[in-house]
Amino acid sequence: MNLNGKKITIHDMSLRDGMHAKRHQISLEQMVSVASGLDAAGVPMIEVTHGDGLAGASVNYGFPAHTDEEYLRAVRPHVKNPKISALLLPGIGTVPELEMAADCGVDTIRVATHCTEADVSEQHITKSRELGLDTVGFLMMAHMVGPEKLIEQARMMEGYGTNCIYVTLRLKAVREALQPETELGFHGHHNLSLGVINSLAAVEAGANRIDGSAAGMGAGAGNTPLEVFVAVAERMGVETGVDLFKLMDVAEDRVVPMLDQPIRVDRDALTLGYAGVYSSFLLFAKRAQQRYGVSSRDVLVELGRRGMIGGQEDMIEDVAMEMAKAQGVQQ
Amino acid sequence: MSKINAALIGSGNIGTDLLYKALRSDRINPVWMVGIDADSEGLARARKLGLKTTHEGVDGMVPHMREDNVQICFDATSAYVHGENNRKVQAQGSIMIDLTPAAVGPFCVPPVNLKDHVGKRELNVNMVTCGGQATIPMVAAVSRVQPVSYGEIVATVSSKSAGPGTRKNIDEFTQTTAGAVEKVGGAKQGKAIIILNPAEPPLMMRDTVHCITEDKPDQAAITQSIQEMIPEVQKYVPGYRLKNGPVFDGNRVTVFMEVEGLGDYLPKYAGNLDIMTAAGLRTAEMFAEEIINGTLVLQPEVA
User: Fold this and answer.
1) Domain extents for chain A?
2) Which one, of A326, A310, B23, lies nearest residue A318 by Cα?
């Protein structure tokens, strides 16, 4: 793989995807500390939102320590160079929250849908463009469909006005189908320990925006550990503009002390990758095991078998209750 | 038994499913279906079943409404065009049952507040959304026992059952549903989430209802209230079922519902169509009875 001389934009997820690992309880001080550290390390983009995006605050996904607005208003003034992005999942977040985020000074809106449902993103992509923001369309869980479907859906988002498309598979095919000026991005999780190598493969396939998290803090076994990826990228001659040692220090000194549990490929996180299940299900499945006395691994496998997609956290408790009934477990 | 003539505006999933149900009604006589696409499958089916059709939108029907004595219209188009449709048919002396999330008129969730609409002379009522119809009875079942500070619903429908109108205006779905969780369900604060799941074979509609009660939940009373509400919904949607719960966790009360449709237009997985169309039809039948017994007199605007 020869990536020498490629220029890419690193996008840190620790303050959004990392919210899953922290049950959305990151404090404002921790947000500011990590964000300013990432700024000093030269990370050009930082995402700040509830783990499930704008308006993710809910019984279903977890109530955060602070509102999206409080997080964004706290972080924005402490960050000089990086762009701040906010995630929005149609069906959860709506245009008024998008406008709120724009008012808080975000530069980028990332609108994410399941990989077959791009047509629910039109309202939000259109509004983001209208506000003049960097607008990203994100097709989640691309492993569930073939390349033709992904291309069709990516073109749909492009047609609504995104200037960048994220897919997690089939990047080469999607790259060829998009307008040359449309950027391509990749967002990896580390459930099968493939975060770094998949990100490199994505760069080879034409992606120029790569997501990852300092210390990997993200859902499941975490995101692509950013400091590891940047180190490898630097050795391979990929230009990230990031100061590796400073980034390593943010990960080690600011993020790791925040963790409630180690971010690693444990039995359940591995099952997420193996069964093709949404990474944010991890802690919910562990809680279901505690409450209903069923195996979290079995619950995750069953969710995968039923074709559950991102956002269906409610079905974790439902499946656990059903399995407990079937097994005659006393509640 | 006398029937009131009705028109179905919109020839997509909702309009077509409603057509089949309306044909079985002993109060409603569907005479028109309105579409905007000459090749619409819904319009073709309506013509075959003996209805008059137009593919020129409401304007194609308006000149004929009085001679055909259309007194009830159902709008199954989208929130954005509902306002115009509403104005045009009301000018012809028709009342409007709104199945879009436009929420121009007061919300109606039959087992919770249909009775409240009797005798009010309302000319437009809104049926909230499919997710609202499937969940608000459960929120109300909890809030009639004790105060609910927060109600949240998660509606999951199969991708195949969500038409282009729903998809294009997905914000209206969440906003209107959340509003009705408060206004009709009785939660002080409401939230709604919708998921479109593309699994094959398609999954049946699922609805999860989370309530946070202000004080410790009275488990026995809430469980009984939920058990009593379910048959009220089953009167018009027989496939409305409690799948799991109620779960009591601190002040959280959660119920997991499943809605199986009758399979009139889309197959049985699309309970989201049934719960909307059956609720709309039930509401229309109530108004039809008022028209028949003379308590509701409709008058077209003087031209």
Assistant:
1) 9-258, 267-327
2) A326
Q: Which of 169-208 (B) contact A at CB < 8 A?
A: 169-171, 173-175, 191, 193-200, 203, 206, 208
- Residue A265 sits at φ, ψ, to 5 deg, of -80, 80
Is B247 near chain A, with CB under 8 Å?
A: yes
Q: What is the pLDDT of residues B247-258, one digit of tens each?
A: 999 999 999 999
Measured between beta carbons, the chain A residues lying within 8 angstroms of B178 are none
**Quick check: A123 and B208 CB within 8 A?**
no
Q: Which of the following CATH numbers is that of domain A267-327: 1.10.10.10, 3.30.70.240, 1.10.8.60, 1.10.150.120?
A: 1.10.8.60
A318 contacts chain B (CB < 8 A):
yes
Name the DSSP letter for residue A254: I
pTM, to two decimals: 0.95
Q: Inspect the interface and report whether the beta carbons of B171 and A94 lie closer than 8 Å.
A: yes
The mean per-residue pLDDT over the stretch A220-247 comes to 98
Q: In what order do the strands lie in the sheet with B148-158?
A: B187-197, B148-158, B205-213, B252-260, B239-249
Cβ distance B193 to B155 under 8 Å? yes
Task: Of A232, A196, A220, give the one whose Cα is nearest residue A141.
Answer: A220
pLDDT at A185 over 90: yes
What average pLDDT does chain A have?
Answer: 97
Distance CA B296, CA B12 (A): 30
Superfamily (CATH H level) for A9-258: Aldolase class I (3.20.20.70)
CB-CB neighbours of A120 under 10 Å? 24
A vs B, Cβ pairs < 8 A, gives 94
Distance CA A22, CA B149 (A): 26
pLDDT band of B296, cuts 50, 70, 90: confident
**Mean pLDDT for the stretch of residues A242-264:** 97
pLDDT of residue A330: 53
CA-wise closest residue to B111 among B141, B153, B89, B83:
B141
Residue B160, pLDDT score: 94
Q: Give the pairing type, strands A183-186 and A209-212.
A: parallel
What 3-state class would DSSP assign to A81?
A: coil
Report chain B's terminal Cα–Cα distance, integer Å: 32
The three-class DSSP label of residue B254 is strand
Span B188-202, average pLDDT: 97
Joined tokens for residue A296 = 């979290």
Kindly tell me the burial class for residue A23, based on how many C-beta atoms sit within 10 Å of its own C-beta (0-12, 13-18, 19 or more). middle
CB proximity A95 to B under 8 Å: yes
Percent of chain B with pLDDT over 90: 89
Q: How confident is the model at residue A29 (pLDDT cuts 50, 70, 90)?
A: very high
In tens, the pLDDT along A122-166 reads 999 999 999 999 999 999 999 899 999 999 999 999 999 999 999
pLDDT at B303 over 60: no
Identify the CA nearest to B145 among candidates B209, B249, B216. Answer: B216
Q: Return phi, psi of residue B184, to 5°.
A: -100, -40
Instruction: Give the model's pLDDT for residue B120.
Output: 83
pLDDT at A329: 62
**Domains assigned to chain B:** 4-127+278-292 (3.40.50.720), 130-270 (3.30.360.10)
